[in-house]
Amino acid sequence: MKPDTLAQVPAFALKQIEVDGVALRYVDVGHGDPLVLLHGWPESHATWRHQIGPLSRSRRVIAPDWFGWGDSARDTALSCDYDSEVARIGRMLDALGLDRVDLACHDYGGFLGLGFVERHPERVRRFAILNSRAHGTFTAPFYLQFGLLTALARRPLLRRIVTAPAIEWTHRLGLAPYVRNGSFDTEQLARYLAFLDTTAGRRWYAHFLAGYQVRVRPELAAGLADIRCPTTVIWGDRDRGIPWRTAEELAKRIPYATLVRIDGGDHFITEERPAEVTEALRGWLLRPADQEHGAV
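^ that's the sequence the OP posted. Answer follows.
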């Protein structure tokens, strides 16, 4: 698949709300039942740029730039530990006036979204998770990489390594394979990493990393069997950072879950294989959900 060009990338106007005293920017298009799309690291709502338009023909699609990413505010007063981030999803829905939503999540968004659907099943009508560490963690090389970054960020004397200008270059180098496989072009990658070009952005990133943990959270695995809403697991099976077995475990242990395997797909699957992801999400949204807790 050819990388995006600027002419091919749809432009969506961003709206703004305030949550926990911080500005959150988001796309809000279409009409119908609300569908919330949560992106992952180090992206923004743009990871869903191929899906937003088609899905908005039958849904009200809301795609935020999660707190600290994209065009949303980077406020180091916000705690970035897991429990705080998961709870913040609920407060975002409250600020948007949404009681219950369909929720589709990729990567870090899936890590948070899984915790949210387990803790607040009454607020999720349907759940989709795509190439996310989910209830597990990363393969060894990525575990060591992110573990090192978080360890550096938590130590004041070493944090300067994470806040140095070179951190943008190392991220650009590490994400270069996804430019080569067509997930995004160099301009889109530059937009994702633009916050690392500023001192304030790098300080926020160190703050985020200091609150992030790569270790497994056993309560997430324990809660999989209690997810009762129609769920789909959509996965590129050549993800170098997250093993395919994570997808298989999710599909096996979540009741009513379906597994969509995208052969040869890598991590940034919404961008690398957009048509297949859109088709899978459309099928998921057609699955019936009742009026109580999303059970079928």
